[in-house]
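User: I'll paste a sequence; please echo it back and then give the predicted structure.

Assistant: Echoing your sequence first, then the prediction.
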Amino acid sequence: MGVRVPLNVSGVWYPVYYVDASRSGSIGLSITLESSVIVRGKASSGPRVYLVCG
């Protein structure tokens, strides 16, 4: 399995809080750049997690 994650640079953000946590979040300005990170993984019966970059 692989996931492509775009590079996102946040410039300004403002947290928004509500008593109901499901409505909380943030408002902001950001730019998504063309470069991205590709994360690959596979199912394993072992308990370990390995991070492979490249």
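The two ends are 15 Å apart (CA to CA). The beta strands are 2-16, 25-40.
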